[in-house]
Design a protein that fits this description.
Oligomer: single chain
Number of helices: 8
Number of strands: 0
Distance between the termini: 109 Å
Shape: elongated
Helix content: over 70%
Length: about 190
């Protein structure tokens, strides 16, 4: 005997389907044995016809799909072009959406405000540095550094008896004290 509960497994479980199934089962139970067999035979024939139509439609769809692919190939439409076109259309739709336009507006406004803030910070720092450069404290530091440099230069000149650069004076001092630089061994 056939199991007729398989149809119920494919249907979504909802109260309406449950009631309808119960009604159909009640009607079917009320039929005589001959009527039940006749109904089953009708349903089997109808099922066979529907399955045949489905197969025919699948065959026609496959044929139409192949034909469409051939036409696209002849027109030079590749899968890559289709994907690119789909992406471009999607981006166009996104850019035209109100959500995108609002987001773009907010980002543009935020960028302008950020640029304004950074501009004023940079301007303030530049102004402060300019004030510091022209201040008495900075002039005093410049004078101190300058005089320290002159003192070192004078001492180097007076020790060696000749005018030389600071690195030359260091080399002369290291040689006279017996210290060798790492590059001395390379030169020898």
């Amino acid at each position: 005997m056939e199991d007729h509960n398989t149809a119920n497994l494919s249907e979504p479980a909802s109260p309406a389907n449950s009631v309808a199934s119960a009604e159909i089962a009640a009607e079917f139970a009320a039929l005589s044995v001959e009527e039940k067999e006749q109904r089953r035979a009708e349903w089997s024939q109808e099922l066979a016809r529907v399955e045949e139509e489905i197969n025919t439609l699948r065959t026609v769809l496959a044929s139409k799909t192949r034909h469409a692919s051939d036409l696209k190939r002849k027109l030079g439409i590749t899968v890559w072009k289709e994907v690119t076109d789909d992406m471009n259309q999607g981006l166009k739709n996104l850019k035209e959406s109100t959500v995108y336009q609002r987001t773009e507006s907010v980002l543009k406004s935020t960028g302008e405000k950020t640029a304004s803030v950074f501009g004023s910070i940079t301007s303030g720092i530049s102004s402060k540095l300019s004030q510091m450069k022209n201040s008495e404290s900075m002039r005093s530091i410049e004078a101190s550094v300058g005089s320290a440099y002159e003192n070192v230069k004078t001492k180097v000149t007076s020790r060696s008896g000749s005018v030389s650069s600071f690195p030359d004076a260091l080399d002369e001092n290291n040689t006279s004290s017996g210290l060798n630089s790492p590059t001395d061994s390379l030169n020898k």
